[in-house]
Hints:
Structural class: mainly alpha
Strand content: under 5%
Largest sheet: none
Number of helices: 9
Helix content: over 70%
Distance between the termini: 60 Å
Low-confidence stretches: none
Amino acid sequence: xxxxxxxxxxxxxxxxxxxxxxxxxxxxxxxxxxxxxxxxxxxxxxxxxxxxxxxxxxxxxxxxxxxxxxxxxxxxxxxxxxxxxxxxxxxxxxxxxxxxxxxxxxxxxxxxxxxxxxxxxxxxxxxxxxxxxxxxxxxxxxxxxxxxxxxxxxxxxxxxxxxxxxxxxxxxxxxxxxxxxxx
Length: 183
């Protein structure tokens, strides 16, 4: 609760209104967030995020009465919790993809197969290096860092459609280069 009230330090009327709103509806907001997120700390984060968002909506909140206010709080909390859930899920997936497992060479694999596998990897990396910089960067962001189209677009400072086009062009050029190389 203290976090969002610190932002309203010089606006005592709004701080008092939001403080009363928080205390009167904490259980409702927290319970709604907990139903979506199923983790107490994540639910508390959602409550803080909702309250920070509500600072900008005090003029609207003052016009709502009883049930309408409760409905507004539930909907805002649910949407915020869903958004946090998606962000957490995406972050967890990226982290899982980035975990590099060190697997010892299979004892059944002979030295010839290991050398061929290493040559294929070197060929692939060389082909990626020959791609135009933006296409190479988009492919590296996707497959090495696990970013989605939106995150790639943000990182490269381009539209999502452009990021998808770069990925498509990069994959196509990479396939062509590998076919030319006989791989």
